[in-house]
Amino acid sequence: MKKNLAFLLVFALAAVSVQAAAFRKEIPVRQHGKEEGMLLDLSKISMGTLNDVEEKKQYLSTVQLEKQRIQNYTLRMVYENAYMLYKHGDYQRAQEMAQTILSIDPNFKQAQTLAKQANHMGTYGTISEAQVIEAKFQETIRLYDSGRLVEANDKLNEILTIQPGNSKAQAWKRKIDYDIAKEYTRRGDVAYDEGDYQKALDAWYNALLMRKDDPKLVAKISDTENKLRKQQVADSMKQALEFYNKGQFVEAYAVFERITKIQPGDPRVQKYMSQLKNEIAAGYYNAGNKSYNSNRFDQAISYWTNAKKWGADSSTMDGLIKRARNAKENHLRVKQQQAIKAEQAAQKAEEAAQKAEQAAAEALEEEPIETVTVSGSVPGLSEGSVIPGAIPGSTSSIGAVGANETLPTLGGTVSRVSAEASAASRAKYIEGLDAFNQDDYERARQAWIVAKQLDPGNSDADLGLRKVEELMK
Alpha helices, DSSP H only, in 2-108? Predict the structure, then answer.
């Protein structure tokens, strides 16, 4: 963009040097005579500090509008110089400058016409300008007779671009402008009768562009704008109250804000907005309290921050937010300590179980099972005596058991289990019980087998084994 503007300025200055005396009155002279005079002095814009999004948007919009104004002003100067070159017969340079303008602003209609005409005159120099103007007049009349008023108006604009002082074109343009304005007015009237005020205003504003001094049209527009504003306010009020009745306070407030832009200063709207702000702030405050009591501290902080934005007392909300942050830190610290303690307890329990298993294994290795030594003779029988019912001459040893006989249970304990082995057996039983409750029957079975090995008298492990074996069949 900078290169294009610089290029245009070079052309403008070149044209000024050729026809300096002729152009001096037409080109405004800047007081400072510096290039910086064309730029926007942003330090002089009184916009205050840019604290919110709307202010930043306003600032950027102002800058953009000023840049556009500078560009339009520069292009207009260059166009005037191109036109002067055209009038002096320098069609090639006039065309080049017009094309350069169009490369920056393709919608510059006068530059479009000038570029076409300069190209035409440069190519067909034998055709006079009067012949070109006459041909355009004939095209204008043809379009007008067929009802194509806008296109006919464009043709007249082309004629006036080439010959701004052409009285015939000016008269035709006034006539066509009047007819176009009349048609726009008619369309606006139809839309107004149908109750479409916005469409009516659009049509009447188009008519006003061509009939700027029509007091009746201005009165229509003013009256319809008031009606449209009242209609928009009524519709918005209805929508806002629907939101309010549903408890959607934030949405209702947004609609009321929109109403204030349509109709500023409405006391009823101001009252609703004030009430809504209080209710929204109270809602956020109460939601923050509930979240805090449920240990959802981040959510509580978010709610209280919003409550402050909606008008709740800042110092009170800041105190609550600080309390929530401290509570969050303490809560996390306690949870971390509990997790560490639980991990340490589990580690100690595992170490105790390992020690118990090791002690039980050592006890089984070190303590032999006590046995009862019985002499070869049965009490009450002398050596060499014959046992009643025994086959004489039999070589069977004393006390031999027949096929269908069982030995009677000997009185007393045949083995002794240490306290460590009993504790280890109990631990294994609990481990098996835990696995059983998780439906892991194989792991429960293995644990209870070890429990029985550590303490054969562990009846709980014995019952558990029988139960799990029934389930695993």
Answer: 2-18, 20-23, 53-87, 91-104
